[in-house]
Amino acid sequence: MKLLNIHSGVAGVYFPAGIDGTCENATKKCLKHCTALECEKSGKDTINTKDILYSFMTEPIYKLTEQIELELKELKTNIIFWFASGDCPEYFESKFYEIIKDSNWVNLIFTRNEHLWRKLTYLKSNKIIIIYSLDDIDELKKLSNSGRIAIPDYKTGNMRLYYLDYSRDCSGSKYDMKERNIKNMEINEDECQNCYKKDIGCFYQIDF
Ligand code: SF4
Fold it and tell me: Is residue 207 situated within a structural domain?
C-alpha cells in the first residue's frame, strides 16, 4: 500500500482526475487544460491513482496515518501536497477531514470542493494550507467565507493567489469584503519545498 509519490520536492497524493475520477467540481475550463488528465490519457503515467484511492477508501484512518508518517520519513519531507491529481469527492470528505485535522505534517491542499475548503479553513491551523481553486475573479466576489483562493493561469502554468477576508461590522448586520490581492504573486507548483523552507509563497504571503 504505497500512498505518496514525490511531487515538486514534496509528497504528493494522486487520485484519478476528471469527472469519471474524483473531480466532482471540475469545470469545463479546468477539464480542458488539466495536465493530470492529459498525463492519464497519454498512458505515460506510472502512478496507479485508482489503487491509491482504493487504499484511502478502504483502510482505517489509524493505518493510513501510520503509513503516511512512514512514507514521509522515507521521502525526507514533512509536507503533503494533496490532490496532485484529482480532488476530494464528497464520499471521501469526512474521512479526509479526520486524517488532516490532527495530522503532524504540513498539508498543502488545492481543491475545488468548497465545503471542504470552508471546514478546514475554519480550523485556522498553521499546518493546513487549503486553497480553493476558481476559474475567474467574478466567482471569488460571490463567496461569503474568508479564506485562500487560487485562480490558475493555464497559459503560463502559474496561479494568482488571494486571501478573501470577511469581517462583520459592529452592528452585526452586514459583512464587508476586503479582498487582499497579493499583487504579482504568481506561484509555480515546482517550488513547494523551497517556498516552505524560505517562508514565502502560499506558506507565508497569504497566511492569516
Ligand atoms: S479539478 Fe484539477 S485535477 Fe480535476 S480536472 Fe480540474 S484541473 Fe484536473
Answer: no
Express each pLDDT in 166-189 by its tens digit.
Answer: 765 555 444 444 555 444 455 555
Q: Which has the closest alpha carbon to 179: 156, 135, 136, 149?
A: 149
Domain that holds residue 125: 5-202
Domain count, the chain: 1
Nearest to 11 by CA among 103, 73, 81: 81
Q: Which three cell numbers stand for residue 47?
A: 502512478
Work out which ligand 1 atom sits closest to the CA atom of 86: 3
Verify whether ligand 1 is closer than 6 Å to residue 30 (CB atom).
Answer: yes
Task: Return d(Cα 147, Cα 126) in angstroms, integer.
Answer: 13
Ligand 1 neighbourhood includes 84 CB (under 6 angstroms)? no
Is residue 85 in contact with ligand 1, taking CB distance under 6 Å?
Answer: yes
pLDDT of residue 177: 47
CA of 161 from ligand 1 middle (Å) equals 17
Distance from the Cα of residue 73 to its chain's centroid? 21
